[in-house]
Amino acid sequence: MKNMNDKQILKRVRGVDLNLLTVFEAIFNCKSVSLAAKMLNISPSAVSQSLQKIRNHYDDILFIRQGNVLQPTLVCLSLHDQLAEIMRLVDVSLNTINDPTKKKKFIIYASHYVASHYLPKLIHALEHQAPNIEIMHYTLTEEMKVDELLINRQADLIFDIHPTTSHSVISIPFSSEPLSLVCSANHPRLKGNVDFSELSAERFCGLHSAIPYIMRRQVEFSRILEGRNFIFSSDSVMALLSIIENTESIGIMPSSLLAESCGAKIQAIDAGLHLEPITFYFLYNKHSAHTPGFSQFLTIVNQLSTVSSK
Q: pTM for the complete prediction?
């Protein structure tokens, strides 16, 4: 119902020159056509023509000349009372974005893992450095097109595992995550140093994904751990972690999980494997970089980066 009312309002308003309302308010405040023209930086004749259009629209003379001053009629006073509030709301709407004292709301897209691992640190930093910033998080899924989300201003910041080639989007390395082969801390067989051959008898958990980068890494892991026998796969790192914690299966996970609270439930398997780290990037629309509020937000995100070459 609200959308229908909005459409009806647009149909009624579209034929009205809204600049006339600005001219009306200028005349009301200046009580003079010439002074209103000077305020608006237009000619007095343009103001007079606009005033005549307003008079025709409202079917009222609106202003009565008394000496060198234009005095408002009752219709004029009533119209001003309504327009003054509208002008105030328009001013607030136009200037809120650029007002550093106003609360800013930014939308972040990130996977479940990134959201649970990095966003708490970001929110903690914002609490102390920018309490006027609010974050809205949405889960980044494989079918989403990162470039389009940013270019169409549906997202302010996105955390992803690969940079973009778009000229309109900036990609900056945020974190380089080492990877470890892990198992449950209570695993009955895998303790201390493990011979590589022992792994062939174990069941694996794996991340399934159609993202090219992850698929390339899976091929790499398959070469290193040839003949893996899978018992479970998921597109969620957190689901894989839960399975590894509570079963005898093993898998490849970010090493940082070992140092966090879940580290008491999982352990690294020392089998002499060398796994290349995975790099996370943060991406944003380059046209937003110098927007008041967002530039401050980017500074805080950069402070949390663990990649030295930023």
A: 0.66
206 within 8 A of 212, measured Cβ to Cβ: no
Can you read off the two tokens belonging to residue 90?
């328009």
The verdict on 169 and 294 lying in the same domain is yes
Edge-to-edge strand ranges of the sheet holding 251-254: 251-254, 179-184, 266-268
What CATH number corresponds to the domain at position 165? 3.40.190.10
- Tell me: do 117 and 200 sit in the same domain: no
pLDDT tens, 8-37? 767 776 767 778 888 999 999 999 999 999
**Band of the pLDDT at 1, cuts 50, 70, 90?**
very low
Rounded to whole angstroms, what are the CA distances from 44 to 18, 73, 77, 80, 256?
18, 21, 22, 21, 70
Give the range of the structural domain holding residue 229, as residue numbers without chain letter.
179-276
For the chain, state the CA radius of gyration: 31
Q: Are residues 69 and 149 in the same domain?
A: no
